[in-house]
Every structure is written in structure tokens, then in C-alpha cells.
Design goal:
- The structure is a single chain.
- With about 280 residues, this protein is mainly β.
- It folds into three domains: about 40 residues, no CATH class; about 70 residues, Sandwich (Immunoglobulin-like); about 150 residues, no CATH class.
- The chain is built from two helices and 21 strands.
- It has a seven-stranded mixed beta sheet with strand order 19-16-15-13-12-20-21, with no helix packed on it. The protein has a five-stranded mixed beta sheet with strand order 4-10-9-6-7, with no helix packed on it. Strands 3-5-8 form a three-stranded antiparallel beta sheet, with no helix packed on it.
- Strand 17 and strand 18 form a beta hairpin.
- The longest helix is centred in the last third of the chain and has 11 residues.
- The protein starts with a strand and ends with a strand.
């Protein structure tokens, strides 16, 4: 039998993987797809993971359950990508501190699944009643210190205040995801209040443009800490005046920021102050 070309397509249907085969320009004989089907299954991803509870900010410990139809689940709590040597999931996890849970399903018959990622931030009692008329930002680096020259994986959560209400740390997020973060500036690095540059990433580690707090879609964001300017509004006022005159200037929002560079619960000591987004 002579075959000019073979096109295959593996699709998930009714919980099973099906192989569609298109043979172009073949003559004589018979054609068996079993070998191709076995090869296609080997290249298909393992069945997806499900998780409960979803990530977020919690006032107390949270129990997290993972499930899949694959053979096993491997997970990490520091944001690293799970592999075959990562911790084997055997029972529901009790999360008592700030963690970035990443998990993948593994099976002998399939490729590993895409990595599931969920961030859990548990609050200390002294911050449970914190509220503000400004949007809130919670940054977790899970034990890593934010540097100037090196981008660091972090979770970032933006919480907007509902109409005529204050924002709280347990309010629903306007955006909750992963980002690369570093300290921003040069001369300002000597100030105790650091500025930060953020690059929003999706679960696969690719740059992702998203709208945040009513501002247009963008992947690169700045959290500016106006330490020498005790009014906190000098740059914001200049930007507003520039736009009023018909020129381009960055749009801004005042926010209150928490930065947790530990693996502990979020506390009042993690409060970093009022920033300009």
C-alpha cells in the first residue's frame, strides 16, 4: 500500500479520546489505525484536574481537595512546576498559611496534564477587619524576597470596592492571578517604600494582557510608591493635567498594598501603604 499523506486528529468525546484519520492518495491493500491510535493516545494529555475550594483569601484554614480520573496527582506548594518527583497527593490538603498550589495529573497512557494553579492567602486575626475606600492589592511571593534585577514569580490579587462600600481583604477580586515582580527604580531604591513592576502571566507562564480596576488591558503594570511626595498625588496630578490638555499620559488609580514575602499568614505587618497603580 502506498500512502501519500496521513492526517490525524485526537479529540475528547464522552470522556474518551477518539482518533480521526484522513488518508490522502493511497492505493491497494488495507489500512489499520490501531498503531496510530495507540501513538496518539500517548501524546494526548492526561485528564484534567478539578479542585475545591478555589483559591482566594480566607479568614481561617481551608481544606483543598483535588480529583482526576488519571492514575495519580503530584503537587507543589511553592509555585514550582510539579513533576514525577513532586509530592504525591493522597488526601485533602489543609492550608493554614499563604501558598501557591500547583498540581498535575499523571498517567501511564497519557502525557501529564496542564498544571493547575491556585493561590491561597490565609489572614491573621489582626487584619480580618481591615477595610478601605481604595482598592486593595495583595502580593504573595511565598518566602522569596523581591529584588531589583531579578523577576520573581508571585501571586497578585486586586480587590475593588463595590459602589458605596469599602473594600475588604475577603471581598471578591477584580483580578487574581500570577505575575513576575521586581523592584522598580534607581535612586528610589534607597527609600524604605519600594516601587514595583509587574508583568501579568497566565497559568502557562506566558505574558497576558488583562484589564485591572477599570484600566485598559495591559500585561505590564507599575505600582509606584511615592515616598518623598507626602501628598501622594504629585505625579497623578501631572498626568491628569497632561490628559486634560489633550496629551498622552498614563491613567492611574490609588490603591492600598500588602506585600507578603514569607510563607506565613497575611498580617498587619505586611501593609506597605498607599501606592499609585
Amino acid at each position: 500500500m502506498e500512502i501519500a499523506s496521513i492526517k490525524t486528529d485526537v479529540r475528547l468525546k464522552d470522556g474518551k479520546y477518539w482518533l480521526q484519520v484522513a488518508l490522502l492518495g493511497f492505493t491497494g491493500g488495507c489500512f489499520c489505525v490501531s498503531t496510530l491510535l495507540q501513538a496518539a493516545e500517548k501524546n494526548a494529555p492526561a485528564h484534567a484536574l478539578t479542585v475545591s475550594a478555589k483559591g482566594g483569601v480566607f479568614a481561617s484554614n481551608v481544606v483543598v481537595t483535588l480529583s482526576t480520573t488519571a492514575r495519580e496527582i503530584r503537587y507543589t506548594l511553592d509555585g514550582s512546576r510539579p513533576g514525577t518527583n513532586s509530592t504525591l497527593y493522597k488526601a485533602p490538603l489543609t492550608v493554614a498559611n499563604s501558598v501557591l498550589l500547583r498540581a498535575r495529573a499523571f498517567s501511564a497512557d497519557f502525557q501529564p496534564s496542564d498544571a493547575l494553579a491556585e493561590t491561597y492567602t490565609v489572614l491573621e486575626t489582626n487584619v480580618l477587619d481591615f477595610s478601605s475606600t481604595l482598592p486593595l492589592v495583595v502580593i504573595n511571593t511565598f518566602g522569596q524576597t523581591i529584588q531589583h534585577a531579578t523577576n520573581l514569580l508571585a501571586s497578585v490579587r486586586f480587590i475593588n470596592a463595590a459602589t458605596n462600600q469599602k473594600a475588604t481583604l475577603v471581598s471578591p477580586p477584580d483580578f487574581d492571578g500570577q505575575a513576575l515582580i521586581r523592584q522598580r527604580g534607581y535612586t528610589s531604591l534607597r527609600y524604605p517604600k519600594k516601587s514595583f513592576a509587574l508583568e501579568i502571566h497566565d497559568s502557562h507562564g506566558a505574558s497576558q494582557a488583562v484589564p485591572i480596576l477599570g484600566l485598559p488591558k495591559e500585561s505590564d503594570w507599575v505600582l509606584y510608591g511615592p515616598y518623598p511626595d507626602k501628598t501622594l498625588m504629585r505625579d497623578v496630578l501631572a498626568y491628569d493635567l497632561s490628559r486634560a490638555m489633550g496629551h498622552y499620559a498614563s491613567r492611574t488609580r490609588f490603591v492600598e498594598v500588602f506585600v507578603n514575602e514569607t510563607t506565613n499568614r497575611l498580617t498587619r505587618t505586611n501593609y506597605a501603604g498607599v501606592y499609585v497603580l
